[in-house]
């Protein structure tokens, strides 16, 4: 399913921003403009669906850190609001999900700095009017039953618990399950550890790996799956050859563990192990596994993937992004003007330039409706 639009309000530097999205979404901007907050707001939608929203907010310092701290209108509720609209193109169904989280009221249950879910809603729309499938206000949840009537769900949600996760686990509501599965399969890659103990540098259990884990811990298994299960590494081999001046990937038949190495043309008799590779080399290999894995995630999001990469690696990275975009929706945040130009050329798109407008994150040339003015010109 295609993520058609998103809306984020009162989250960090995002005062209120709504944007239409396409198959490839490229965000470029200076430090401090809030590019990563856009990426993070989308990640929080997935956290709400998975049931880890409260943990994610707590991990970034709690609601006190997550809330917009700029000027507010008088009597405005202090709430983070996130919305996502997904289009199921095969069935011509649009899923609209919204969640609002605020602070704990005085003398209420829950911990002081964890988010309190105020409202939550999932609606679906076909050719007729939108139909609400799930609606939550406070702890009470209303859900549409098999007969098409809204009824009260017998269990109340905890103040920081999402109804989407609670009902999705119940297994009785197909629309909720469909939406939850789609969003749960999104993949977010925000840098990879490259130190000596990094998961990228370690052998891993030889278990078939259709997609890369977000920490890269199954990197060797992803390469083994491509090499020995699919037996098709054409795009992967081309990317590695281009990035490393003729080098090739060596992936032995897995035993108990999967492993890999690089063979450089200057040393054809020797395989360099992951522990011997530079930070940029191992990071590029992780990006290759993220973008060219056996199975394509519905959406793959990369936050500043150019970190530690030599400029000569950016054109091959852009080629991998264009290849991934044939089967996945792509969300890319970058500082690099070179990478942005390379992606623009290969994907036939225009970058969304992130700026600060009256202290808040904004997209240059974007209308309040979420459309980019230049694209319609």
Automatic annotation (TrEMBL):
Where is the Endonuclease GajA/Old nuclease/RecF-like AAA domain positioned along the sequence?
1-45
Q: Where is the ATPase AAA-type core domain?
A: 269-339
| The organism's place on the tree of life at top rank | Bacteria
Record-linked InterPro entries: AAA_GajA/Old/RecF-like (IPR041685), ATPase_AAA_core (IPR003959), P-loop_NTPase (IPR027417), RecF-like (IPR014555)
Q: What is this protein called?
A: AAA family ATPase
